Amino acid sequence: MSPSLAILLVTLGAMLVGAGVLHLIPRLGPAGRALSGALCRAPLLDLVITYFTAGPMIVGPIAGSMLSPETPVLGAGLGLLAALLGQVGAVMVWTVLHELAHPEARRGPRIVHTLNRKVGRVRNHAAVWWTAWAVPVFWVIRVAQYFVYPPLTWLVRLPRYRAEEWINVSRHKFRGLVGHDLIWCLYCDWMTGVWSLGGEMLRNVESFWCPIRFDSTKKCDNCRVDYPDIAGGWVDADADMAEVVRVLDEKYPGPGGTNPWFGHPVRVTVKGKSPEA
C-alpha cells in the first residue's frame, strides 16, 4: 500500500470513528449528555474542531514526509492531498449514513433540495464545497484569539470575553436538519461565532489605538456596521491630533477598570453600576 493511500484511509477512518463517538456520547446517560454539551462549546469545541479540520492537514504532511524519506517534500504534499481527500470522503460517507438513519427528515423539506432548485444541483454543491477553503483560515483566527488577544487584556486592559458565549454550536438540535444540511449548518454555526468574536476584539483594538475615521466616505459607511465607533466617537479624517488626544482622554479616563470600544456594554450603567457587575 502506498503512503498516500494509507494516509487517506487512516484519515477517513479516524473522521468516521470520531463522528461515531460524538453521536454515542449523549446516549451514555446524564454524564454523557453533560459531556456532549461541553463538547459543543469552547474550549472543548476547539479540540473537536481541530480534530476534524486542522488536525489531518497537519498530521497528513508530517506522515507523508516520514513515510517517503527519499522525497520528503513530495511526500508531504501527497500526504496533505491524501488527508484532504480522506476528510472529504468522510463527510460524504457520514452524510449518506446520517440521512439513511433519518428517512422522514431526508424525504421532507430540505435546504439542499430547495437551493438545488434555485441555482442547480452542480452549482450549489460546487459552491458549498468551495467555501471549505475557508476552514483553515477560521481555525487560524481562532488560534489567534487564544494567543494574540488575551495579553492585551492585562497589558492595556482591553475587556475579557467568555469565549463559550461566541464559540459554540447548537444547530444539531434543530428538527429536520440532517445529513448535508446539518454538516454545513454546523460549519456556519462555528464560523459565525469565530468571526463575530474576532470582530468584537478588533473593535477594542481599533478604537483604543486608532480612533480616526477613514478618508473614504464609502469605506466608513461599509465598515460602520462592524465598527460602530466610526459614527459614534472616532474623529474626522480632516481633524488634527489634538482632537484625537481629546477623544482618547474622554473615552479612556485613566487607571482602573477596562478600556473597551466606545459602545461596549461595560460602558452602560444602571444607577451608576455596570449591568455586568
Largest sheet: none
Helix content: 55-70%
Distance between the termini: 61 Å
Number of helices in the DSSP assignment: 13
Return residue spans where pLDDT drops below 50 for at least 5 consecutive residues.
none
Overall geometry: globular
Write down the domain tally. Answer: 2
Give the beta-strand count.
0
Summing up helix and strand content along with how strands pair, one would put the structural category as mainly alpha
Write a structural description:
- The chain has helices at 3-24, 29-39, 44-67, 72-101, 103-107, 111-119, 121-130, 135-147, 150-155, 179-209, 217-223, 229-232, 241-251.
- It is mainly α.
- The chain folds into two domains: 3-201, no CATH class; 210-267, no CATH class.
- Helix 1 runs antiparallel to helix 3 (44-67) and helix 3 crosses helix 4.
- The longest helix has 31 residues, at 179-209.
- The radius of gyration is 23 Å and the shape is globular.
Keywords:
277 residues; mainly alpha; 2 domains; 13 helices; 66% helix; globular
What's this, in brief?
The chain is mainly α and about 280 residues long. The chain has helices spanning about 5-25, 30-40, 45-65, 70-100, 105, 110-120, 120-130, 135-145, 150-155, 180-210, 215-225, 230, 240-250. The longest helix has about 30 residues, at about 180-210.
Set down the secondary structure blueprint.
Layout: H1 3-24, H2 29-39, H3 44-67, H4 72-101, H5 103-107, H6 111-119, H7 121-130, H8 135-147, H9 150-155, H10 179-209, H11 217-223, H12 229-232, H13 241-251
Helix pairs in contact: 1-3, 1-4, 3-4, 3-8, 6-7, 8-10
